[in-house]
């Protein structure tokens, strides 16, 4: 570590919980019902974006009649929550990582593009809410990731300088946000994207969260 780390800020989807498949399926189901024909590869392009940004992104490319961003976004969110509540599981090594942060005396925060509804669904399902001292969502911000505001807000809520925080991310948009916030970064990419050149922007790259305690020196 190039600077003393005092806080670890986790992204949520794809880091704490394997919810990216739920998001992708929900987005495909809802958007394709509106007449789009999105493939999984296309849906992956918007990983890390706030859901209203996702809906707007696809509307700009494939406009559909009777556009209602809020209604469409809510349908997708409802589908994701249903899937999380039914089958949600923590990502490999997440509990060990949270325990390691606690042992090291590091503050723990959450900075996500997801809504507060999904945050609480995930924390309740995984029973990990007690680890976090700050929960920050980009849902009501002017800009979501890759804008750094949600990360800056989380650092501020923790009372730690952004440069003394390390962000744990699985998306390129999230890494851009954390880097712009002047944080150190760890990328834990989905296995099928691990060899993509874009992850070079992260300070560290890990195969799974179970390797984070060693990186932190636990």
From TrEMBL:
InterPro entries linked to this entry: HAD-like_sf, HAD-SF_hydro_IA, HAD_2, HAD_sf, PGP-like_dom2
Signal peptide range: none
Alphabetical list of CDD domains matching this protein: HAD_BPGM-like (cd07505)
Gene3D superfamilies cross-referenced by the UniProt entry: HAD superfamily/HAD-like (3.40.50.1000), Putative phosphatase, domain 2 (1.10.150.240)
PANTHER family: 2-DEOXYGLUCOSE-6-PHOSPHATE PHOSPHATASE 2, PSEUDOURIDINE-5'-PHOSPHATASE
Protein name in the entry: 2-deoxyglucose-6-phosphatase
Organism expressing this protein natively: Shewanella saliphila
Gene name of the encoded protein: yniC
């Amino acid at each position: 570590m190039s600077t003393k780390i005092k806080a670890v800020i986790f992204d949520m989807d794809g880091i704490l919980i394997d919810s990216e498949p739920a998001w992708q399926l929900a987005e495909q189901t809802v958007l394709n019902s509106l007449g789009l024909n999105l493939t999984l590869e296309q849906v992956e392009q918007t990983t890390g974006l706030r859901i209203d940004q996702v809906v707007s992104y696809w509307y700009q490319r494939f406009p559909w009649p009777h556009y209602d961003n809020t209604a469409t976004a809510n349908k997708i969110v409802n589908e994701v929550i249903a899937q999380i509540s039914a089958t949600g599981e923590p990502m490999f090594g997440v509990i060990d990582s949270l325990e390691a942060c606690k042992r090291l005396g590091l503050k723990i925060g959450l900075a996500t593009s997801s809504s507060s509804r999904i945050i609480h669904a995930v924390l309740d399902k995984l029973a990990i809410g007690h680890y976090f001292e700050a929960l920050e969502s980009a849902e009501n911000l002017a800009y979501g990731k890759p804008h750094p505001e949600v990360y800056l807000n989380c650092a501020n809520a923790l009372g730690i300088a952004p440069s003394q925080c390390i962000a744990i991310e699985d998306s390129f948009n999230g890494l851009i946000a954390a880097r712009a916030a002047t944080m150190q970064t760890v990328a834990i990419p989905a296995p099928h994207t691990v060899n993509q050149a874009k992850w070079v922007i992260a300070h560290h790259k890990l195969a799974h969260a179970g390797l984070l305690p060693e990186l932190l020196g636990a």
